[in-house]
Amino acid sequence: MVNQAAEAAKNLNLQLRYIDVPSLAAFERAFAEVGSEHCDVVFQFPNPTFYENRKRLVDLAAQYRLPATYNAKAFVEVGGLMGYGADPLALNRRTAIFVDKILKGATPATLPVEQPTQFDLAINLVTAKALEIKVPQALLAAADLVID
Predict the structure, then answer these.
(1) How far apart, in whole angstroms, are the C-alpha atoms of residue 24 and residue 39?
(2) CATH superfamily of 2-87+120-147
(3) Over the stretch 54-107, which tens digit does the pLDDT of each residue have?
């Protein structure tokens, strides 16, 4: 994912700054570092620790007045600016189907690899207003969830 993000940033003529955050204890340091560098936006890669502590991430982004995008609408529901990613419930349902097949005797190596097919775009206009960001109407029209 880091390589893909780096390639996308290069193609868009953006400078990417990667900060490793190996634990919950490192959240504060990472946001302080990003805040002091006056970054334009923060993006976090999918990570169970981040998801479980999404409110803390969102609060730190607000504290440092950093626009942040996330990989799930659950971040937006707790105050994050914008989220786009695969629907975790849909992923879990597909996982359950695979588990059922394996428990019934299927060999995991013979099961097909699947890519997510359901994605959510969520935007929090309350957060956008607090950060003085005007969200384009076209983006709002494409959103699955808009919080205002």
Answers:
(1) 21
(2) Response regulator (3.40.50.2300)
(3) 999 999 999 999 999 999 999 999 999 999 999 888 888 999 999 999 999 999
